[in-house]
Automatic annotation (TrEMBL):
UniProt region (Disordered), positions on chain: 349-373
InterPro entries, per database record: MMPL_dom (IPR004869), Mycobact_MmpL (IPR050545), SSD (IPR000731)
Localization terms from the record: Cell membrane
Domain SSD per the UniProt entry, residue ranges: 213-341, 645-737
Name used for this protein in its record: SSD domain-containing protein
Membrane topology annotation: Multi-pass membrane protein
Superkingdom of the organism of origin: Archaea
Keyword Transmembrane helix: yes
Main location: membrane
Key words of the record: Cell membrane, Membrane, Transmembrane, Transmembrane helix
Keyword Nucleus: no
């Protein structure tokens, strides 16, 4: 076993000798972190789930012009309304990153040179309508941060344009959606942090009675959270719907780490002088807590590795890893120095004295410690110890029942509902979402039903290529869920009397007649753009089917040699990525199990001790599916990572119980059942209280306005509870069975040399 205890003991001696310097260093890191946190940006919607690839990057630079729609409802042919639309159009056209604004006022101005005072003249141009749309076309390849000011400018222009009071003006589209959602994510992150801290205060106040400064762990955890924000800023990890879920989790886990240090320090302080208490406490509790931190980080690392290429999941995993490591460090650099200074203030003589206590004092401390330990066990500890013994007395029955439930859970997991539509991840009453849905209902879906195909190669304006595009359109529109297609050939036919030119010269002549803005929708920088129009209100499976139909249509239409057509765009990439993450959740979980097992094996260098803590976690992975089925919790992309998280987070409880078990079983005259009962009684209460405190932190997620985060909150609360049950109910029989197996193997190894010796003697 690595000599981590000496390293932690030396660290404890350093902090004990220089607590003020340690605190100043930690506070300095807070200042550095605040500077980094100021650099955090927010990413929302499909962009958070779409990784970079060459085809997508090319498409975004050439054709991906974001747009914003302004829906004007009322009698738009009224001169006062049309003049307001004209003012709005002109004002918004001057905004940075706006390429052009298309409105009915454009047509009226072209006809009359101005907006006339006659409603009849206006109707002669635009007809009679009770609504119209003003479309704002943005520049290509803009980030979400660059589009959000356009929405702000649009709201200002709407107010400045002074629309008549009976006219309703709604601004919608991706910039509006992104701006409102970004603000909501920031607000939600702050609220969840506040709720988690408040719940932690309640938990510490009521569950850790009798401990001095029992609210101090909050200070350490909050410092760790600030450091985590700083790490996000410096490593360019943005805030998103998924990363906002990390912080209540970190508060729950960070409190656990701090409480472990706090309780052990108090325990050592009751047995010896303060100068010795901190090194001894940190040397004793530091290694197992560090292993728990590494296990949790590896659980999140499994999510990172299995979702490379899908940004939102990678950001979630990265933020979680930063958080568990930094809250662990904060517990050491903030909590322990403060406890040291407090002890020096309350007990100055003992803190500065190197004189060992007298024998009478030692006897009294031993008696007091024994009395305290007995009191600490209490009724709850005795009950947990007895439960552990009963479970261990019937190992095969207990493990058999657990295995049956686990098997049933894996079967139930295949029938769970899934959530893969990014719009289902957000509050359904978000104004931008309701405006967007209303806009789609009035416009036939808008951009939500449009998918893009990037065409590359030589001779994209050649008549043969244009004829292929017509074949492509004919094949695609004949397939289910595809209702239309716009291609460069469609545009050229429109400007050539409904036919395709037979020669390249004819194509060039037609293209010269087309306005530049219209032409750049289909041709730019040596690439061509095709738009596929899908059915309205498609569910996730229908979207996947549509994408598959587009790919099949591409193959069936047989593009000319040297021409490639690739389906691309954020809408086409996001849904498959999310579905893939959900479908490979078993792989993510398995990877988490393997990583944690390897870490335990390297640390303990003992197969039994590496396997034992993981057996209860395997049970929980199956049980959580039964829990989800009972509460009708669907599998979301975030929930898909929970299996790996469960292994990483829950390993702490099982490791603590296992280490106490082996500590007891080493003593002479102690049977396995006695050791199990003592371990359950001594640490069962501690991990139960620790687990309940963690549940308080996680439960803040249940109050999130984001449905996905709220479901994840209910899921994590249930899984942590199941983890505690597994640690107390299934680990004791697991330890007994593995112990018997180890004894049998040892006996066989002992018997083999003896048998060989007998055979040799007979041969002689």
């Amino acid at each position: 076993m690595w000599d981590l205890r000496d390293l932690f003991r030396q660290l404890g001696q350093t902090i004990q000798a220089r607590p003020v310097l340690t605190l100043l260093f930690a506070i300095g890191l807070v200042g550095v972190a605040i500077t980094g946190a100021a650099q955090i940006e927010s990413v929302t919607g499909n962009e958070a789930f779409v990784g970079s690839n060459p085809t997508l990057d090319t498409y975004q630079k050439t054709f991906d012009r974001g747009s914003m729609a302004t829906l004007v409802r009322g009698d738009v042919s009224e001169p006062a309304t049309m003049r307001a639309i004209d003012r709005y159009d002109r004002r918004l056209s001057q905004t940075e990153n706006v390429e052009r604004v298309i409105s009915p006022a454009d047509r009226v101005r072209r006809e009359y040179g101005r907006i006339p005072d006659s409603q009849a003249k206006i109707r002669a141009v635009i007809g009679t309508s009770d609504s119209t749309i003003v479309t704002t076309v943005l520049s290509t390849d803009l980030s979400q941060q660059e589009t959000r000011p356009v929405y702000t400018r649009a709201t200002e222009a709407r107010d400045w344009a002074q629309f008549p009071s009976d006219i309703e003006v709604t601004i919608t589209g991706q910039p509006a959606f992104s701006a409102q959602l970004s603000a909501l994510i920031q607000q939600s992150t702050q609220q969840l942090l506040g709720l988690a801290v408040g719940l932690m205060i309640i938990a510490l106040f009521f569950l850790f009675r009798g401990v001095r400064l029992r609210l101090l762990p909050i200070v350490a955890v909050f410092t760790g959270v600030i450091w985590t924000f700083g790490a996000m800023g410096y490593t360019s990890v943005p805030n998103s719907t998924l990363t906002s879920a990390v912080f209540p989790i970190l508060i729950g886990l960070g409190i656990d780490y701090s409480v472990q240090f706090h309780e052990r320090y108090e325990e050592e302080l009751s047995d010896g002088p303060p100068k010795e208490a901190l090194p001894k406490a940190l040397g004793g509790i530091g290694p197992p807590v560090l292993i728990a931190v590494i296990a949790a980080a590896l659980g999140f690392g499994a999510t990172w590795f299995s979702t490379i290429g899908t940004p939102a999941f990678v950001w979630f995993a990265q933020t979680s890893i930063f958080g568990v490591l930094l809250t662990f460090v904060a517990a050491i650099l903030i909590l322990l120095p403060l406890l040291t200074l407090y002890t020096r203030w309350r007990r100055p003589d003992e803190a500065s004295s190197d004189t060992p206590p007298s024998p009478d004092t030692n006897d009294q401390q031993t008696h007091d410690a024994a009395s305290t330990a007995s009191a600490d066990i209490g009724t709850m500890g005795q009950i947990l110890g007895r439960i552990s013994r009963v479970m261990a007395s019937h190992p095969f029955a207990v493990l058999g029942i657990a295995l049956v439930l686990t098997t049933g859970g894996f079967y139930a997991g295949s029938d769970l509902d899934t959530v893969a539509d990014t719009e289902d991840f957000i509050p359904q009453d978000l104004p931008a979402l309701t405006d967007l849905q209303q806009f789609r209902s009035e416009t036939g879906g808008g951009s939500s039903v449009q998918y893009s195909v990037l065409v590359s190669g030589d001779q994209l304006q050649d008549p043969e290529t244009l004829r292929w595009m017509e074949r492509y359109r004919a094949v695609a529109v004949g397939k289910p869920l595809i209702t239309g297609m716009e291609t460069p050939a469609t545009m050229i036919k429109e400007y050539n009397n409904g036919t395709l030119p037979e020669t390249e010269a004819g194509v060039d002549q037609t293209l010269d007649q087309i306005p530049v803005g219209e032409k750049q929708r289909f041709y730019k920088d040596g690439y061509a753009h095709i738009t596929v129009i899908g059915a309205q209100n498609m569910n996730t499976q229908e979207q996947l089917d549509l994408l598959d139909n587009v790919e099949k249509a591409t193959a069936l239409s047989q593009p000319p040699a040297g021409v490639e057509a690739e389906l691309t765009g954020q809408a086409a990439a996001a849904t498959p990525a999310i579905v893939s993450q959900i479908e490979q959740r078993n792989f993510t979980t398995g990877l988490g199990v393997v990583l944690v097992f390897v870490a335990l094996l390297l640390y303990y260098r003992n197969l039994l001790r590496a396997v034992a803590p993981l057996v209860p976690m395997l049970f929980v992975i199956g049980w959580q599916n039964l829990y989800m089925a009972a509460l009708s919790i669907p599998v979301s992309p975030l929930g898909a990572s929970l299996g790996a998280m469960t292994v990483g987070i829950g390993a702490e409880y099982t490791i603590i119980v296992m280490e106490r078990y082996f500590e007891e079983v080493k003593q002479a005259g102690i049977s396995r059942l006695d050791a199990v009962e003592t371990a359950g009684a001594r640490v069962g209460k501690a991990i139960s209280v620790s687990g309940l405190t963690t549940i308080f932190g996680f439960s803040a997620l249940t109050l999130s306005p984001f449905p996905m985060l709220a479901d994840f909150g209910f899921l994590t609360v249930g899984v942590i509870f199941l983890t505690l049950v597994a640690a107390i109910a299934t680990l004791p029989p697991t330890l007994v069975v593995l112990g018997r197996l180890a004894d049998t193997i040892a006996e066989l190894r002992t018997a083999e040399p003896a048998q060989s010796q007998v055979i040799d003697q007979r041969n002689e």
